[in-house]
């Protein structure tokens, strides 16, 4: 059978979740680590058809059928290989390439590519422990990297000379240039990476396909990466995923940070499920890869404006990948620090507090909305609601989309559109002496109210009521007046508690959950007060 080449079929498998593909034809229920349903290839009443999202295959324990998204599409639709690829390409939103069977030359070129990259990795590793690489070794050790970590991640050093060009001087120049390691200059080939701390980029199959080099002299850019090649595409590669795959599966989440040093430090300090994009902003291809394991992602960015913008973009990209079981959160490292610095200064506990205190997607979207748009004006509210509608429409699951819509409509109504009734229905005192006179009149006129709310009224320290003025309220309004005062007293207490907790939050105490509970209680009590006033 003709082949379209591994690059395209691998891209389809990366972009498309097998649970999504199979789920279009077979109702699936998650049990344990796998999804289960009734096999579409034979009649059965008890589900024996298992789908493993991480590994990308299905297997029926009843009839023995086994395969991936391509074989499933072929078999369930009675399609030829090419037609199945076309349908999956449409589903993934990618263009179907022209058919070009792999030639022996192309296969040899790919083998040559990986051979050159592997050889270069070993050369860089060796150079790191030479006199020429001493400053690079001192730097990486100074960042908290042990020799064991250096070996595991195959970190190396690219000297100032042309060691790669010289090593492959007998190899065809086009083969070396295809890897991105060398470029052609006025006087021939030269090494692209010079005097750089080298991080090999390893694909999920364990092969070195590219490199990221960090400057050691303070020059910018801080990092340079291999340009896109036939075997490497930055938009489709996550640094550290080869190490993190199993951990992501076990932890049932992934953590995304901004750079490779942060990713390595996180992986080796209690967060092995951490990855990072490479020399480019986060892309939907990155998320598609991670969502094949699970759709629980914590984005960890700097707390500055750039970090907030990166988080907003991440939320936008994440919306189409959401499921009703997704747990998407946003953690921010403040104080001009990054995860590496937090781990150095505060240790694992400090970093865990940041990750565990991450803001859920719903709260992040709501906060972003209120920070971005001027909700106090009609125009600002209209713009905000249009933006929110556009984001919610990206959710593919109709039930989940409906729930998000209802959640934000409720928030918008209570925060922006709810009109507060005029409090003149139950006069609210403007000063303490007026309050006292009103209560005196109520107590002298309606002793049953005094008895019912005695515990609260005692705290008001009301003076002798024998000389009180006539009560200005009916019995019903008098009781509403007392209840209103009681509720407002409670709201004042809650506001003080929130203020104290906010002060504790600013000095690093983990009180966000308590603040959230108080906010919810304040909203509940405010609703109760509004309902009382409308009576």
Give a short summary of the structure.
By secondary structure, the protein is of the alpha+beta class.
How would you describe this structure to a colleague?
- This protein is an alpha+beta fold and 535 residues long.
- 51% of the residues lie in helices and 13% in strands.
- The protein contains 22 helices and 17 strands.
- The protein has helices spanning 6-15, 18-23, 69-77, 81-92, 104-128, 134-142, 147-152, 163-167, 173-178, 241-251, 260-267, 284-291, 305-318, 339-356, 361-372, 378-392, 398-417, 432-445, 447-452, 454-458, 475-506, 512-534; strands at residues 29-31, 34-37, 49-52, 57-60, 66-67, 156-158, 182-185, 188-191, 196-202, 208-215, 223-225, 238-239, 254-256, 274-277, 297-302, 328-333, 359-360.
- The strands form 4 sheets. A 6-stranded mixed sheet has the order 12-14-13-15-16-17, with helices on both faces. A 5-stranded antiparallel sheet has the order 1-2-3-4-5. Strands 6-9-10-11 form a 4-stranded antiparallel sheet.
- A hairpin with a 5-residue loop joins strand 9 (196-202) and strand 10.
- Helix 16 (378-392) packs antiparallel against helix 17 and helix 21 runs antiparallel to helix 22.
- It is globular and about 110 Å long.
- Mean pLDDT is 83; it is low at 419-431.
């Amino acid at each position: 059978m003709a082949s379209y080449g591994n690059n395209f079929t691998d891209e389809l498998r990366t972009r498309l979740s097998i649970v999504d593909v199979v789920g279009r034809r077979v109702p699936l229920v998650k049990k344990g680590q796998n999804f289960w349903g009734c096999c579409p290839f034979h009649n059965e009443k008890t589900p024996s058809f298992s789908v493993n999202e991480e590994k990308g295959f299905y297997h029926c324990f009843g009839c023995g059928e086994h395969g991936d998204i391509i074989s499933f599409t072929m078999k369930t639709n009675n399609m030829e290989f090419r037609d199945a690829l076309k349908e999956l390409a449409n589903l993934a939103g990618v263009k179907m390439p022209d058919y070009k069977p792999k030639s022996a030359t192309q296969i040899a070129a790919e083998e040559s590519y990986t051979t050159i990259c592997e050889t270069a990795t070993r050369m860089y590793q060796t150079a790191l422990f030479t006199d020429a690489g001493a400053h690079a070794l001192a730097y990486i050790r100074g960042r908290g990297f042990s020799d064991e970590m250096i070996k595991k991640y195959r970190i190396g050093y690219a000297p100032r000379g042309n060691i790669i060009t010289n090593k492959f001087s007998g190899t065809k120049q086009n083969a070396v240039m295809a890897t991105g390691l060398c470029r052609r200059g006025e006087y021939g080939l030269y090494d692209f990476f010079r005097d750089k701390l080298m991080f090999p980029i390893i694909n999920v199959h364990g092969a070195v396909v590219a490199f990221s080099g960090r400057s050691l002299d303070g020059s910018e850019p801080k990092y340079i990466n291999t340009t896109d090649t036939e075997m490497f595409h930055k938009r489709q590669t996550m640094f550290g995923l080869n190490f993190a795959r199993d951990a992501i599966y076990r932890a049932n989440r992934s953590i995304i940070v901004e750079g490779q040093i942060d990713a390595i430090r996180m992986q080796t300090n209690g967060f092995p499920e951490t990855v990072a994009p490479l020399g480019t902003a986060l892309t939907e291809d990155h998320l598609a890869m991670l969502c094949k394991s699970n759709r629980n992602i914590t984005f960890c960015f700097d707390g500055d404006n750039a970090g907030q913008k990166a988080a907003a973009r991440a939320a936008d990209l994440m919306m189409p990948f959401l499921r009703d079981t997704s747990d998407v959160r946003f953690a921010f490292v403040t104080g001009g620090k990054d995860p590496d610095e937090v781990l150095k200064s505060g240790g694992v506990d400090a970093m865990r507090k940041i990750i565990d205190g991450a803001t859920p997607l719903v709260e992040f979207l709501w906060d972003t909305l209120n920070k971005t748009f001027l909700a106090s004006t009609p125009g600002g509210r209209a713009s905000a609601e249009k933006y929110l509608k556009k984001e919610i429409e990206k959710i593919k699951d109709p039930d989940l989309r409906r729930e998000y819509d209802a959640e934000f409509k409720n928030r918008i109504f209570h925060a922006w559109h709810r009109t507060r009734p005029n409090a003149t229905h139950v006069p609210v005192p403007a000063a303490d002496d007026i309050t006292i006179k009103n209560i005196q009149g109520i107590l002298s006129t309606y002793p049953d109210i005094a008895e019912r709310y005695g515990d609260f009224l005692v705290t008001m320290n009301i003076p002798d009521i024998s000389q009180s003025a006539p009560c200005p309220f009916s019995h019903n309004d008098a009781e509403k007046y007392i209840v209103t005062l009681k509720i407002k007293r409670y709201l004042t207490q809650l506001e003080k508690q929130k203020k104290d907790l906010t002060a504790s939050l600013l000095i690093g105490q983990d009180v966000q959950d308590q603040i959230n509970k108080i906010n919810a209680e304040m909203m509940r009590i405010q609703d109760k007060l509004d309902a009382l006033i409308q009576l």
